[in-house]
Amino acid sequence: MSPSSHDDARLARVALGWLVEPGNQALWTRVAEHGPARVLEGLLAGDHLDRLRRAAGARLGADDPRQLAEAALERTRRLGARVVIPEDDEWPHQLDQLIGICDLHDKADPVDRDAAPPLCLWARGPLRLDEALDRSVAVVGARAASEYGAQLAQRIGYGLAERDWAVVSGGAYGVDARAHRGALAAGGVTVVVLACGVDRAYPASHTNLFERVAEDGLLVSEWPPGAEPFRHRFLIRNRVIAAASRGTVVVEASARSGSLQTLRRAGQLNRCRMVVPGPVTSAMSVGCHEQLRSPEPTTLVTGVAHILEAVGKMGIDLAPVPRGPEHPRDRLAPTEQRLLEALLIRKPLSSDEVATRAGVPAQDAWRLLPSLAYRGFAQRRAHGFIIGDGRDR
Amino acid sequence: MSPSSHDDARLARVALGWLVEPGNQALWTRVAEHGPARVLEGLLAGDHLDRLRRAAGARLGADDPRQLAEAALERTRRLGARVVIPEDDEWPHQLDQLIGICDLHDKADPVDRDAAPPLCLWARGPLRLDEALDRSVAVVGARAASEYGAQLAQRIGYGLAERDWAVVSGGAYGVDARAHRGALAAGGVTVVVLACGVDRAYPASHTNLFERVAEDGLLVSEWPPGAEPFRHRFLIRNRVIAAASRGTVVVEASARSGSLQTLRRAGQLNRCRMVVPGPVTSAMSVGCHEQLRSPEPTTLVTGVAHILEAVGKMGIDLAPVPRGPEHPRDRLAPTEQRLLEALLIRKPLSSDEVATRAGVPAQDAWRLLPSLAYRGFAQRRAHGFIIGDGRDR
Fold first, then answer.
1. Which of B298, B318, B338 is the last residue of a domain?
2. Would residue B11 count as lying in a domain?
3. ipTM, two decimals
């Protein structure tokens, strides 16, 4: 593709993105078939007397979308941001898999209609989109996170970044912000996927956080600079978080949390669905526990090791199975353990007495007690055996 | 069985239980085949030169097991306790299902060898064993429970008892004790399954708890009065807790907690395996979370409602299968039922019309409709068939 047709494509995609809210399946499919410039041309010429035209609705004919797109691109440049399109090398093509879930329409969930891949993405920050998102995990959860959830999110963000995984989230209060901050604290990569323009700080108190991300990571959005964080946009945005990363971890979620929608998307895309449990007494973990009770395959994770085991390649990032402290005595054969149980601290017992107390064959006691004494588990006395002095126990 | 042979059986079972630690598969099988009295006789006469004799080991020949059994029974009577055997009406026969898991021998777990049903049970308390355990749930967990786990155990014990479910546990510190106490606080039934004699308070600080249980619930053990709580006995005991109840709930468990073994047994017996999650920062929930991550089907529960949902379903398998009233029509062949479904109340349909509506071959309709009319399910009219008058339906 020549530079000029490349620029045409970018302009057309931005214009189309202004005409129709992101995620529209009909638009994405037509653009994939005919290219963005021709689809825009046709739409403006009134070629498409169909649901695509209906989707564009009132915006069609209000202003000239090409002029608006030019202005948006100019504003983007002034911001030090850029518009990335699928025709660019840095486009993260895992997002294109979203087209596969458009046909999973769930009538109960109208948002499912808006699951098509983005037409373009605004990006602000020094990293290439494809590289930043290649090894990434989404860490999302409750805005009203408890201290438990907030600390865990930060710890997980830190741990992932420390092991060279990028942390993707939505920049919201609570879990999202703490996950981003954890990654930054570890000197790692974090990507904020916004539901408004990359020049807007929403929430406003995250102005400093987003500035830091713009310096070291990436601010990403499907909407042009200046776009407002309308409520429906968060749900549309969530599919990008799920599709961009190898798996989604929900740290805390109340019963109807939006983060569970992100998790659902991850599952639809065959990405790992992960949930951190919490106290059953906490309202902030109700959604997590319900998810773990649901028939949808979801992996319980308690930390970074479990997350990497799930998203990492098989066999490489296997989490160690936790064990309690092991005592030398735990390695004894069951009969030996039973013999030891039957010994007393002070009063020596004969082999036969020990066998009777332990309920094991006498010959086993004769054979094993001297060996246990030799290994320090028991002590030999003139008239039998007592419990060992603990040297090796 | 006559009273005297009944008493012989009880004496023999107690004697055999003294000779061989509970759970021995060979002994249980032989007793099931030949009756306890004959097996004891043979063993004392030296008939069994095999692993059964080996299992009895040093205890064989040490004292007269019959005299010891007499003494144990006398001591039991003086305690106000009783020995319950499978020949008694109050035997909880769900325990006999344990024989089914003896062949699941897991070489890595030597305890699997001791999974046979109990030969007899000591019981202390006013309730019948079978009735107390019929609608019961095991609530087990860490001895070193956190305040979170202890409170949950108590709340769950209370909630189950409040809804007429008995709470079974092991009487240990922490989760076990709090579950028992919760049930008592609700005025409900609780059953302590001990790993020592029913006259011993282990741990000693639970003396008052056990006295209360002996008054309102049941203290149960496979070991005679005076028997010591040897370590291996807890694992042997756990299978009784799992088998007696419809499901096992683990409230808190460290990485190598014995309560996970009870849970495993419950699964082997097709009882519900349930686990309460907790903060991932708590060592006392590590075992719970590992269980929820394992491939073994385990249900996450956060409270009594979830537990009852799980064991309520299981109850259908254990109790006689509840059915609605049966209609004669339920016994018809599927094709006949489809033909009946296709008939109308007033308008007669020809055989061919019925066949078409029912989606069955025409010749089946020709053959079966007259027979259905003969049996009163359908009625013949001049121009076909209508629904029967209900005489026999």
1. B318
2. yes
3. 0.79
